[in-house]
Amino acid sequence: MEKKRVLSGIRPTGKLHLGHWVGVLSNWVNLQDKYQCFFMVADWHALMSEYKSSREIKETIIDNVADWLAWGIDYKKSTIFVQSEVKEHLELFMMLSVITPLGWLFRCPTFKEQLVQLKDKEINTYAFLGYPVLQAADILLYKAHYVPVGEDQLPHLELTREIARRFHFIYNCEIFVEPQDILTPTPKFLGVDGRKMSKSYNNYISLDEELTSIETKVLSMFTDPSRIKNTDRGHPDICNVFSYYKVFAPKIIEEVRDWCSNAKRGCKDCKKMMAGILTEFMGERSRKKRELLKDKDIVISILEEGNRKAGNFASLTMKEVKEVVMGKL
Length: 329
Ligand code: TRP
Known about the structure:
Elements: E1 5-10, H1 18-31, E2 36-41, H2 43-50, H3 57-70, E3 79-82, H4 88-99, H5 102-106, H6 109-117, H7 126-129, H8 131-141, E4 146-148, H9 154-171, E5 180-182, H10 211-219, H11 240-248, H12 253-261, H13 267-293, H14 296-326
Parallel strand pairs: 1-2, 2-3, 4-5
Helix pairs in contact: 3-13, 4-8, 4-14, 8-9, 10-13, 11-13
């Protein structure tokens, strides 16, 4: 039987960090055998908010894709490509824009939030309002059954389904697949200061973080505030460091719980051990990335191959779409 399809994307707006790994990338890695996967660099989406520093996007693409490859995305199994290199994304974006009511976009919670959060970026633009329509085009173009995303993206998936339904209704056809989300098992993964891990909070550990810096950052983490002395019993379930154990050392999680809640080991020891686990996990991948980036042409040719494969699929869908909307000459 033909495998079901997955599509997902990451915007190349800066370095990737552990939040991306836990929230999205690790999910991608696990889906590669079961599904036909399309993993996309969403550079048009990046441009919508980063248009004033647009020249940085290209370099970020190479850096991010090197991370993907080093952290387990296998270009032989999955199609890795760049959105702006497959012209059909903008074509379908336009055709979906035609049928998308403005109200749906103004009502979108991410639009309202971002306008407030990214004030300095001046994203009160025509294109940015259409951000979810472009995302719908990305997904529908590949007739993706599943879309692995973080929780924050769920409104965009809902909108994608609504747009697909409206298209089918208006043009009396059944071209697209209504996509379902795949959420990561660990929806909450916080930065070293206990807030959401994010570039703008500067509380992140990047995927290629220097090993010494990993240690410094982990040692700076807050633990259970009620555990003042080593002899105090801790509450692992409210400790951010413990949540790192859940992700990066699930096998020893019960032991760590015992050390903490029965005051058998102190927080500093616990953090030191976590730093060791992370440096081992990340060090190997960072080395792989450095190796890859010695010759950027390798990354570029992997992308070119992916662009071609994605383009082949996308052009078939667009042919169908144009035909139901405009007919044949
Ligand atoms: N909006 C997504 C994000 O910010 C990125 C993205 C663009 C995407 N196109 C997509 C994700 C298609 C899933 C599917 O994370």
